[in-house]
């Protein structure tokens, strides 16, 4: 497996990957089928991210298949350009196999090269596997976002987590 920055030419594969992840994850923001992302839209977004110096999308690839991603969106203002908000997704068959760790390790290398000092994310408090990964990678909890999401008719909390580099 390799981890690399995604390219606009990956738009179709990336679109398929995000649909797979959202289709079999109980804690992603978007539910299965809720968001329709066409390859053309994905390509445009990937081109835009490629132009920014403080944002990226990393992809985990095995064979010719994308199996996971880690998006880092850098701040737009001068005062928060040093920070990046993270979203990670891994297809079900590859969870628990080190894909997330490899994505985070490459993210840190990328962040240091691109003058990112703060990585941040939110995670549903019930997402034990996500919490375990983030803590293992050095993230700490900063606070709780109460009733942040409505999942299966229940309001759930999220933790704000961060890591300073």
Notes on the structure:
This protein is of the alpha+beta class and 165 residues long. Helices cover 30% and strands 36% of the residues. It has four helices and seven strands; from the N terminus they run E-H-H-E-E-E-H-E-H-E-E. The protein has helices at residues 11-23, 39-51, 99-113, 128-136; strands at 2-5, 56-62, 65-74, 83-90, 118-124, 140-151, 154-164. A seven-stranded mixed β-sheet has the order 1-2-3-4-5-7-6, with helices on both faces. Helix 3 (99-113) links the parallel strand 4 and strand 5 (118-124). Helix 1 packs across helix 2 (39-51). The longest helix is centred in the middle third of the chain and has 15 residues, at 99-113. The model has no long low-confidence stretch (mean pLDDT 91).
Record the SSE blueprint:
Layout: E1 2-5, H1 11-23, H2 39-51, E2 56-62, E3 65-74, E4 83-90, H3 99-113, E5 118-124, H4 128-136, E6 140-151, E7 154-164
Parallel strand pairs: 4-5
Antiparallel strand pairs: 1-2, 2-3, 3-4, 5-7, 6-7
Helix pairs in contact: 1-2
Organism: Virgibacillus litoralis
InterPro entries: AcTrfase_GNAT_prd, Acyl_CoA_acyltransferase, GNAT_dom
Domain N-acetyltransferase: 1-165
């Amino acid at each position: 497996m390799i981890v690399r920055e995604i390219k606009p030419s990956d738009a179709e594969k990336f679109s398929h990957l995000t649909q797979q992840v959202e289709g079999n994850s109980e804690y992603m923001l978007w539910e299965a089928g809720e968001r329709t992302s066409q390859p053309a839209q994905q390509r445009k977004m990937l081109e835009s991210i490629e132009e920014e110096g403080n944002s990226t999308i990393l992809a985990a690839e095995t064979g010719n298949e994308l199996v996971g991603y880690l998006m880092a969106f850098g701040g737009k203002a001068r005062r928060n350009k040093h920070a990046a908000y993270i979203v990670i997704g891994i297809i079900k068959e590859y969870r628990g196999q080190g894909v997330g760790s490899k994505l985070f390790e490459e993210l840190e290398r990328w962040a240091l090269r691109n003058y990112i000092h703060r990585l941040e994310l939110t995670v549903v408090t019930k997402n034990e596997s996500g919490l375990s990964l983030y803590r293992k990678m050095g993230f700490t909890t900063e606070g709780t976002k109460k009733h942040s999401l409505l999942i299966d008719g229940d309001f759930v909390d999220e933790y704000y987590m961060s890591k300073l580099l």
